[in-house]
Amino acid sequence: MKLYEFQGKEIFKKYGIPVQSGFLIHKNDEVKNLIPPLVLKSQVLVGGRGKAGGIKIWEGNTDVSQIINELFSLKIKGEKVRSILALEKVDILREIYLSITFNKGKSTPVLIVGTSGGMDIEESIRLNKEKIHFVEIDPFLGILEYQIRFVAKKLNIDNYLEFKNIIRTVYKIFKEYDATLVEINPLAITPHGLVAIDSKINLDDQASFRHQVLFQKLEEEKKLIKDKEDSNTSELTDDTITFVPLSGNIGVISDGAGTGLFTLDLINEYGGKVANFCEMGGITNSEVMLKSLKMVASDQSVKSILVVLIGGFNRMDDMAEGIVKFKKELNKNIPIFIRMCGTKEESGKELMKKANIPVYDSLNVAVEKAVKKAMEN
Ligand code: GDP
Ligand code: MN
Fold first, then answer.
1. Which helix (DSSP H) or strand (DSSP E) does residue 123 occupy?
2. What is the DSSP string of 215-237?
3. 49 in ligand 1 pocket by Cβ < 6 Å?
4. 186 CB less than 6 Å from ligand 1?
5. Sign of dihedral through CA atoms 247, 249, 253, 254?
6. Mean pLDDT for the chain?
7. Which of 9, 160, 241, 365 has its CA 20 to 30 A from that of 171?
8. Is 137 exposed, middle or buried (0-12, 13-18, 19+ CB in 10 A)?
9. DSSP readout, 270-326?
10. How confident is the model over 70-114, as pLDDT tens digits?
């Protein structure tokens, strides 16, 4: 799960990483008695807000409500702005980049620092590889003093203790929240010390059972933001789902791009035509399954839906739960054909049978049936 900046900063604050003080503004909120200078930051989950005009500084010499209205009318990379974080502006001497994420090749944490953080980090790395440093973390040892000294030197840090504290805290958050990413970009050097100007935290959905209260709270906050809008289409967007509209009459959902692609080939071989293709983005859950089905079914030309699942990390009982929910909630008469195997396959199939949804062991058979049904309807 991706956290909004304000949610990440709440965690930072709780753990003692310095952040600016501020508050959240919702659409149609009455804003009075604001004291400049303020930074007004649109809260969206996509990156590159600054470049897209989603961050405005109010120095006090213009009408602040106009700036706020302007931000609320923005759509950043397709995402509507539904709330704004207002923060006291700080003076920045230098911006650095700091994050901890997983080195996917080794499945171990890695600390990444950049000597010039901020909005142009990608461009600046491309131009100068010297500006970025990677430090592998041994999960059994944690981050070691010499590693912190190494990066502090590279970054020309004056106040070593303050910096060390932040690194150790970021790693603590990374571990305790089961995060896949904790990023501060920029971490600003200000006349009054280091300040986390931005926050980006991604949590591992597979570990949500260990943080049930937190996940519930975060979901509720997200809903609160979304409820402010007429959310017909917005609830169908998800940053992990890839949706490809095509021109046939079979809807296809898979839990991996490769599985999806060879299924498309197979449909073609059986003489079928694909209406749209939805790839759930690797590791997924029942909610994403439900969303994907809604997305696929919202296309009027879809006459049958084929769901192809190979459970590795994904649990088939989870997937089945999403499918059953779809059947119950939408009550549409589009026939669904499932091929599922792997983790928790038995309980998944059991749920499918109870809901009267055909499930097949053979991909060929499932494809054949889905193609045939689409041709009939
Ligand atoms: P992003 O574009 O989504 O990454 O948004 P950030 O929160 O990282 O802000 C983008 C840029 O705006 C930062 O790199 C800063 O240069 C600038 N900025 C944001 N907040 C402040 C602030 O309080 N003071 C100053 N001087 N600049 C800020
Ligand atoms: Mn940023």
1. helix 121-127
2. HHHHHHHHHHHHHTS--TTGGG-
3. yes
4. yes
5. negative
6. 91
7. 241
8. buried
9. TT--EEEEEE--SS--HHHHHHHHHHHHTSTT--EEEEEEEESSS-HHHHHHHHHHH
10. 999 998 887 889 999 999 999 999 999 999 999 988 889 999 999
pLDDT by residue (tens digit) across 169-179? 999 999 999 99
Ligand 1 atom nearest 89 alpha carbon: 23
CA pair distance 307, 349, nearest whole angstrom: 13
Distance CA 100, CA 176 (A): 13
Atom of ligand 1 nearest to the CA of 91: 26
95 in Cβ contact with 187 (< 8 Å): yes
The per-residue pLDDT for 72 is 95
126 vs 103, more confident: 103
248 in ligand 1 pocket by Cβ < 6 Å?
no
- The C-alpha atoms of residue 79 and residue 60 are separated, in whole angstroms, by 28
- Closest ligand 1 atom to residue 95 Cα is 14
- Beta bridge partner(s), residue 38: 58, 88
